[in-house]
Amino acid sequence: MKITVRHASHQDDVRNYDTTKLRDHFLVPSVFEADDIVLTYSHIDRFVVGGAMPVSGPLKLESAKAIGSANFLDRRELGAVNVGGPGRITVDGAVFELAPRDCLYITMGSLDVRFESLDPTNPAKFYLNSAPAHARFETMKISIAQAKAVHMGDPAQSNERTIYQMIHPDVCRTAQLVLGMTVLKPNNMWNTMPCHTHDRRCEVYFYFDLPEPARVFHFMGEPSETRHVVVANEQAVISPSWSIHSGVGTRNYTFIWAMAGDNQDFTDMDFIPMEDLR
Ligand SMILES: O=C[C@H](O)[C@@H](O)CC(=O)C(=O)O
Ligand SMILES: [Zn+2]
């Protein structure tokens, strides 16, 4: 397992970042490495983002100095979404089969977490999000069919999409983590415009279903000082609480968003009027 620590950044500094520095601080360029668990620990809400890609055998979730407890989930909870081939996660002996697009919420206090692929020629890819937790809830699998589906947008604004709320208070109880998957319809490229901030929570985006050489231009920054990060397939972007988060692709795509912070109220957003953006 590899874990990289990143510190939080102040918006007054970020406005002076060049492209390389912006990417170094906010883009997670490599989420999946075969036969490894690769994580980024961000001091923004102590959010951990990364991936587990088991190929030749199971991978066990280990703790690390950055986590600071004997087991990874002693004081954390975890959301895993399978964006690869069929796989399986075992949590303290309980086996959860995860078809592509299935999500598993793993509660604080779980001691032994193992990731496995069913077919090494079509490995599972578990996209991982973790936040600190203070209580134990129920580990549960949430398939797309069990998620709360919200249809949004319209073709005239190139943003027709379905937001599947998977780890959400209406579906699954958690300490902090809220997570879902947004699927854009073909010929629709914009997500989250008009955009918003939510100073009460950070958010992490993971873009996929983006065949080469397609890219998503992910927008971030203060509303009056926007920047963009060019994102390729299976890369993640960390969005601080002061930042807008929105994107436009060179084609349609899917993304997973996850949040942690002071509340779990999905609708607690501060909408930015389009005319205020700079
Ligand atoms: O705070 C909520 C998040 O930004 C996402 O859920 C937005 C999103 O998926 C979309 O508009 O497509
Ligand atoms: Zn948001």
TrEMBL record:
EC class of the enzyme, as a word: isomerase
Record-linked Pfam families: KduI (PF04962)
Membrane-spanning ranges: none
Alphabetical UniProt keywords: Isomerase, Metal-binding, Plasmid, Zinc
EC number: 5.3.1.17
Family per record: Belongs to the KduI family.
NCBIfam families: PRK00924.1
The protein, known as: 4-deoxy-L-threo-5-hexosulose-uronate ketol-isomerase
Protein source organism: Azospirillum baldaniorum
Name of the encoding gene: kduI
